[in-house]
Amino acid sequence: MVKNNLPRIGVIGAGRLGTALAKQSLSVGYEVRISNSRGPESLELLLSVLLPGAIAATIDETISKSDIVILAFPLRYYKSLTPQLFIGKIVIDAMNYWAPVEGDIAEFADATITSSEMVQQYLHDAHVIKTLNHIAYNEIEEHALPLQSKGYRAIGIAGDDRDAKLTAMAYVEALGFDGVDLGVLKNGALLQPDTRLFNARMSADSMKSQTAVRI
Ligand SMILES: NC(=O)c1ccc[n+]([C@@H]2O[C@H](COP(=O)([O-])OP(=O)(O)OC[C@H]3O[C@@H](n4cnc5c(N)ncnc54)[C@H](OP(=O)(O)O)[C@@H]3O)[C@@H](O)[C@H]2O)c1
């Protein structure tokens, strides 16, 4: 934890979603590290133009120096991460398998397991939370609102570890959204592409009534 007592945020993936989440995190006071596969030097322009105050880092530094690590890169590369670095880390899996965009990938076509459960199996010593994957990057800053404002947009949160989920919930709320606990990680299926919740702007009450999961 840093001085202001907020968890340190590490974003892996510096594209549309990673940049939007890093920007919003900075704006509400978090310390933010961000990385991509090409190394910190490649992020200089991005930082100077869009993310002043963020720290460009290697992927491994992003993991080791962050309390919450956000995965915001193409899902098919998740096994490029080093699982040993993730012991005890809270991991926000914001990635999606979306065949029209990613192409058909046999590994993710198995309907008996969600992509986040695959990530959890691979990062076995982390606490993986599925969230922030079902909002478009350009709506993060635009739709963020102060706590319990009118029109407060719901963001679903699924995970197996209660404490990690509470930390993720506090983070989502600090970003400006109404976190809705959807229960265990497997329920992250409710947030995947081609579901009612994916890309839907709705209130927490509406999300709860549409999912009716047992927490
Ligand atoms: N765009 C959205 O609105 C949105 C919303 C919700 C969820 N998502 C999900 O978020 C993920 C990223 O989407 P995006 O739209 O942000 O993609 P994007 O704009 O193409 O950005 C992908 C980023 O990941 C980096 N990257 C690629 N391979 C990497 C690796 N092996 N390790 C670390 N970084 C790597 C890329 O940089 P380098 O190639 O230089 O490494 C780039 O910075 C996807 O799973 C997507 O489904 C996207």
Helix-strand layout with pairing:
Blueprint: E1 9-12, H1 16-27, E2 32-35, H2 44-49, E3 55-56, H3 59-64, E4 68-71, E5 90-93, H4 99-102, H5 115-122, E6 127-131, H6 140-143, E7 154-159, H7 162-175, E8 178-181, H8 204-211
Parallel strand pairs: 1-2, 1-4, 2-3, 4-5, 5-6, 7-8
Antiparallel strand pairs: 6-7
The chain binds NADP nicotinamide-adenine-dinucleotide phosphate.
Describe the structure in your own words.
The protein has 215 residues and is α/β, with parallel strands linked by helices. The chain has one domain: Rossmann fold (3-Layer(aba) Sandwich). Helix content is 29%, strand content 15%. The chain has eight helices and eight strands, in the order βαβαβαββααβαβαβα. Strands 3-2-1-4-5-6-7-8 form an eight-stranded mixed sheet, sandwiched between helices. The longest helix is centred in the last third of the chain and has 14 residues. The radius of gyration is 16 Å and the shape is globular. The two termini are 28 Å apart. The model has no long low-confidence stretch (mean pLDDT 95). The structure holds NADP nicotinamide-adenine-dinucleotide phosphate. The site of NADP nicotinamide-adenine-dinucleotide phosphate has 24 residues, from helix 1.
> What fraction, in percent, of the residue positions are helical?
25-40%
Provide the list of bound ligands, each named once. NADP nicotinamide-adenine-dinucleotide phosphate
Strand arrangement within the widest β-sheet reads: 3-2-1-4-5-6-7-8
Structural class: alpha/beta
- Annotated CATH topology: Rossmann fold
Strand and helix order: EHEHEHEEHHEHEHEH
CATH class annotation: Alpha Beta
What is the correct CATH architecture?
3-Layer(aba) Sandwich
Shape: globular
Mind telling me the C-alpha Rg?
A: 16 Å
How much of the sequence lies in strands comes to 15-25%
> Biggest β-sheet, characterized?
8 strands, mixed
- Write down the oligomeric state: single chain
User: How many helical elements?
Assistant: 8
